[in-house]
Give the backbone structure.
Amino acid sequence: MKRNSFLTVLLIGSLSLGLLAGCGSAPSQDAGMRNQAGTEGADRARSDPGDIVELTFTGWEASPLETEAVEKGIKIFEEQNPDIKVSYTPGLSGAEYTAKLLSAASAGSLPDIMFMQSTDYRAFASKGILLDVTDRFSGEFSLDDFIDSSREIMDFDGKVYGVSSCSVMPIIYYNKDLFDAAGVDYPKSDPSNCWTMDAFREVAKKLTSDDVYGCYGFEVDGMWPALVNENNGHYYDPADKATPQFDTTENKEVFQAIMDIRSVDGSAPDATTLSNVGMTALQMFETGKIAMLCDGSWSLQELAATDLNIGMAPLPSFKKASSSGQAHLHCINAKTEHPEEAWKFVKFLSGEEYQTEMISTGLWMPNRKSWYTEDGLKIWYRKDVHGDDYMNMLRYFEDAQADERPFTLTTETTDAITEEMQLFFSGDKSLNDAMSSAQSRMMDAYRASIQ
């Protein structure tokens, strides 16, 4: 348990942690959001070959560094394509982003190109909101070159409605100086010989003191799919990736272990208590208040820019060492008036020139098998950013299972999991009651989605 003096420090700010690569809100309906005139406009030719085609593009701001990188890429694209101008509007995140995109779709004012959260991808595609780019995609890319976690998410009943932007996964970041001070050995970064969950908990307890929590991050919903996979658990029946299969012994073991890290070991802060304090989880880690942080791979970009003495390790394993990968996709509005120019821009966003900038800084992870080869590594790997630990985990990243949350036609199923398990973590429901309720709500949402 922590002393009151440390809790006082915590109560000066807020602690939050998000996955997936963070998500964001759709753009406001301003000059950057052009009303679309219907499907007949998709084949409309420009009246004058000298006209400038203006494309609208929206996403979210996972960090100012990401927005800066996106805008830099747009500038390069415009220099290469002087007849196309791209207006980019980043917004907020998560459910707000989804709601605004749906509202814009109803109003006929969707942007030409958009970040699409992987958890929204199938729902939007099934509603006819996204342009089917299967033929264009097949003419430019090989689906088999994408790592399995990205390929499986893109492939919706044999069709492609968006190109995977990258891959993002959970990683354990740890403060080497705090390990040294506690006399604790660094974790192994080789997934074939990495720590078990029991071993991780013992390390976290040794690192916990009056001023430092041993770890944080497992109670955040974005981390659960990977941990569940490690225990041979699932969100959905693996045979169809659709029928809810959440209330299982394998999943209960995972969530009980997460709870015990805080409630039994005293090694992690209470997420509910810390929800309104003045620092994010990453800031807590950067200031030495958390020794180990389970966070998204994108945090490497910010951490690499600091002078922190950090290491990286795979997630602690249950039955196997495994991670889960997903990320947003770049999708085109089915009613865009400029499908060819929009596809040209999406190709650029998926190309080596743009991707290298994002991956080499640590923001994204490569999603092509060819980029994990010896020659591919030369394109993006930077020792000062990624270090030896990252290199030791390359196969772990490449072979990650697909995050199961994107395979549903409604986000209500995964919302049920998040809401019910947070009730468990807050002590408002028993594990059995929370799991049973989540399963029931998931089945109701699933049945409604297929009617």
Remarks:
- The longest strand covers residues 53-60.
- Residues 1-47 have pLDDT under 50 and may be disordered.
- The two ends are 50 Å apart (CA to CA).
- Residues 431-449 form the longest helix (19 residues).
